[in-house]
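Entry 14: structure prediction run for S49 family peptidase. Input pasted below.
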Amino acid sequence: MAPLNLPFLNKTDSTLPGGVTRPTWVVLDLQGAYPARQPASPLAALLNRTETLEALEARVEKLRDAEWLHGVLVRFGGFAAAPATAHAVRGILGRLAQNKRVVAHLPQLSMTALIAASGATEIAAPESADVMLGGFAVESTFLGAFLKKHGIEFENLRIREYKAALTRFSQDHMDEANREQLSAYISGMESAWARDLAEARGVTEETARGWLSGNLTSAQGALDAGLITRIAYEDELVGPATRPMAAVLELFMPKKPSNAKAGRIAVIPLIGTIIPGKSRNNPVPLPLLGGPMAGSDTVTAALKRAKHDDKTKAIVLYVNSGGGSALASDLIWREVATSEKPVVVVMDEYAASGGYYVATHARHIVASPYTLTGSIGVVSGKPVMRDLFARNGLNPERVGNDRALMYSASRPYSDDERALIERSIGEVYDRFVSRVAAGRKLTPERVNELGRGRIWSGLDALENGLIDELGDLYTGIERAAELAGLPYDAPTWNATPKNHGPLPEFVQEAASVAQSAVTLDSLSLWPFGKERILTWFDQDVKVR
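Run finished. Output tokens:
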């Protein structure tokens, strides 16, 4: 964290004003993307230098309990969280504001920073603040024409019209169904934004929506419109009795021990594309391959450990995933559905397709208003490199049963193969619909209306009965405590597979990344192994 460039906050000047024995204000910096929890692996946690919501919550609790503290200045510098995470930060600051005066200082009045800052008592900005309030938008680059130009086509079989997981590879433009669902998702997010800011600033939602017109260009304009409460530079917001958080850590009382007698709550992350096998992470920025991958073996082993742990009375499954393998999603779903202990699912930025599938039989589902969820649909496909091979003198020869090579990239599907895959994905879709219907107490007909691959914002998902409540991980842990009959201060623990050692998995992960970086055969370009039926929503939806 960058130190405050203020003379009376320098470490060499630790003298407080006369008559003051302890600081009356503390400066809290918010920077980065704020993932929810520390990595479960001890080694990964040791190497992780990213600030988490878990750590922020712990610091804020210390500030709340400090009787000597009057207020907190929250500095937003390099805040890069997604809207769903920003909403969780909003909740953290809102709980702090119940006990202390909280002032948020924003050098940039951006959409996501304002979501988080709306939990503060006041919002201040410098006179020169950048104002970026054009609403939310999505931009997707379609690669169909580019790939075809280079001899690559993409087979895309899907159920149904809204299922857009592979369309950016198979098409050269956005189809109308995809445009419709993305427009509705953006509209839901802007409604949530207007509601959050209207509540914070004490205005109507209609007034808050007016702030999204793009006509606000300065901090003075934002102040006149009622969006912020003050124009001020940092040095105008703090006094000589103010100290940065790092300088006052020794003043905090030791944390009270959690109420562990009744039991504890397990928190299990499901982060990234859902795949068969073990979880891994690939930092190589390749389409379909990059980023974290949640392996069904790893997630189900963690669920089993929590289910068999005598001290654990409830489980929170924290999902940030656009889904993936239909098989892997179903195996995780089974562990949730068969748990005698209550399972609460908390949805982060994404809980779509397979990421929603795993949640259907949870006792309670919590999502952010900004969560992208739903996408109840199925897709299958493959790259076809026939023209690329021909242009470059590559000539695949076949021997044996041609059906055994139906997923080869050297040719398209035959009509019989395409019919076979369509029947198969139809069966998976029917199973998906039946899971949702049984878990959410809806008719299959209603689920099909909400399904067909369509995405929903968390706000719309609540209205349609796909989730139970709007909130964040804090909310989910509270609901888990209630369902298990535990006090709210019951301890939580990050559950991992039994006998989970950091070194073997770390080495295995590194080897996997190296292999992915150098292997270019058609199977390695498909991260789901031999399985081709997916409950997957391509996560190339970045809201700005």
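Notes: The mean pLDDT is 89. Will compare against the previous run tomorrow.
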